[in-house]
Design goal:
Layout lengths: L1 E5 L10 H4 L7 E9 L5 E4 L4 E4 L10 E7 L1 H10 L7 E12 L5 H9 L1 E8 L33
Parallel strand pairs: 1-7
Antiparallel strand pairs: 1-5, 2-5, 2-6, 3-4, 6-7
């Protein structure tokens, strides 16, 4: 099992959460809520209003999201879903645990007690330069006050 941190449309209550709970795509077990230890710019960009975490450490906000434990099948699905490695890159990042629900071995308990876990995160190093000038968000909600509703793939 691998740990994945999601900050956008895959979170609970968001448009693509259905994929996280579709066991035909693999297993994803909610572990808790967290935020990036380092600051990153989270922008909503493109004609489909997609949330992107730009891989510019030290700029932006501590991005809030959810921590999942996923099996290899789900990780492979997420790589394909996120267009990895072309649109997004999957990298390890340090995530500060805000609220932990995960149950597991001593390693997980210890990591949660220390307040920081390593998770795979889909961020991007390839983006138009003007995205750096977009508003930075600390958390994502498709129907947030930004007014930039995400366009589902099936509606594009």
């Amino acid at each position: 099992m691998a740990r994945v941190f999601v900050y956008g449309t895959l979170k609970m209550g968001q448009p693509n959460y259905k994929h996280m709970i579709n066991t035909a795509k693999g297993l994803a077990k909610f572990q808790g809520r967290g935020r990036t230890v380092e600051k990153y710019p989270l922008v909503i960009a493109g004609k489909y209003n997609i949330p992107y975490m730009l891989n510019i450490p030290g700029t932006g906000h501590h991005v809030a999201g959810e921590i999942y434990s996923v099996d290899d099948q789900m990780l492979q699905f997420l790589d394909e879903f996120e267009g990895c490695p072309d649109m997004y890159q999957r990298t390890l990042m340090r995530i500060e645990v805000v609220e932990w629900e995960g149950k597991g071995g001593a390693g997980e308990t210890r990591a949660a007690a220390e307040g920081v876990v390593e998770c795979f995160v889909y961020s991007t190093t390839t983006y138009p330069p003007e995205w750096v000038g977009l508003p930075y968000h600390d958390s994502y909600d498709s129907s947030g006050k930004h007014g930039l509703s995400y366009v589902l793939r099936e509606s594009r």
